[in-house]
Specification:
The chain is of the alpha/beta class. Helices cover 33% and strands 27% of the residues. The chain has 2 domains: 14-162, 2-Layer Sandwich (Nucleotidyltransferase, domain 5); 186-246, no CATH class. The strands form 3 sheets. Strands 3-2-1-4-5 form a 5-stranded mixed sheet, with helices on both faces. A two-stranded antiparallel ribbon has the order 6-7. The protein has a two-stranded antiparallel sheet with strand order 8-9. α2 packs parallel to α3 (99-108). It starts with 13 loop residues before the first helix and ends with a helix.
Length: 247
């Protein structure tokens, strides 16, 4: 059979081509998806959101117990009330996103880009927001009903826009908050060499150059792991951090 089949030449790496598309059109891409939140009575609620790729702003958020195509179209109508800067809409192959949804998007002027089957990485911006919403909000509360989930979601969206920073945005927020100038004050870093202690004075900026701070969330609070001079010398870092706090 292989002798009679025409061999098709692949044009590059599909994964790399998709990532290049996302990078080149980031400012004009919007994506949407569902995620579920259980309630105290074991009802399953579906949270729908629309996110832009450029600044990662949430354009729309709502909750329903019965997701249908006509309900999704209404949410998209509220998310895109008029012609905007967006040219592409990325979403998965959920059966709720049927031809009615596609027709509305095309009428709005958006080009439809469906992800491949079982390829959530192709809609990575939306998937990462789902993970953030669960990790920072919904995993810590027990929702009572649809109105409760809607209120929690919109409060989280407000926090996400105004206070949550992103490395991709150069440690800025989606709403581009104003950066406050901080006064540089001298701090003391303590260096321990065996049983001998010697105090070396550093400014705050010099301390930050000497120590790379890694924050890890734990159930009992925030754990600070410091690395001095590229090596994991936690003892030196703990004394430096204690002096920094006292200052």
């Amino acid at each position: 059979m292989a002798r009679y089949l025409r061999r098709m030449r692949r044009r590059g790496d599909p994964a790399r081509n998709w990532l290049t598309f996302l990078q080149n059109h980031r400012e004009v891409i919007a994506a949407f998806d569902f995620f579920t939140v259980p309630t105290v009575t074991f009802r399953l609620l579906y949270c729908f959101f629309v996110i832009e790729h450029g600044r990662r702003r949430i354009l729309h958020f709502n909750v329903t117990e019965h997701p249908r195509a006509e309900w999704v179209v209404q949410q998209l109508r509220e998310a895109f009330p008029e012609a905007g800067p967006y040219r592409y809409a990325i979403f998965d192959r959920d059966s709720t996103f049927n031809e009615e949804v596609v027709t509305f998007l095309e009428a709005t002027g958006l080009k439809v880009k469906r992800t491949s089957v079982q390829a959530p990485w192709q809609n990575g911006t939306a998937e990462r927001w789902i993970a953030s919403a669960r990790r920072d909000c919904f995993d810590h509360v027990i929702a009572f009903n649809e109105a409760h989930v809607r209120r929690l979601g919109r409060e989280f969206v407000a926090y996400y826009h105004d206070d949550r920073t992103h490395l991709r945005l150069e440690k800025d927020t989606p709403s581009e908050r104003a950066i406050e100038a901080t006064k540089v004050q001298p701090h003391i870093a303590t260096r321990i060499d065996g049983d001998r202690r010697s105090h070396v004075g550093f400014t705050f900026g010099q301390c930050m150059e000497q120590f790379r701070i890694v924050l890890r969330d734990r159930a009992d609070g925030v754990f600070f792991a410091f690395y001095y001079g590229g090596t994991a010398n936690v003892t030196e870092a703990i004394f430096a951090f204690e002096h920094w706090q006292r200052e």
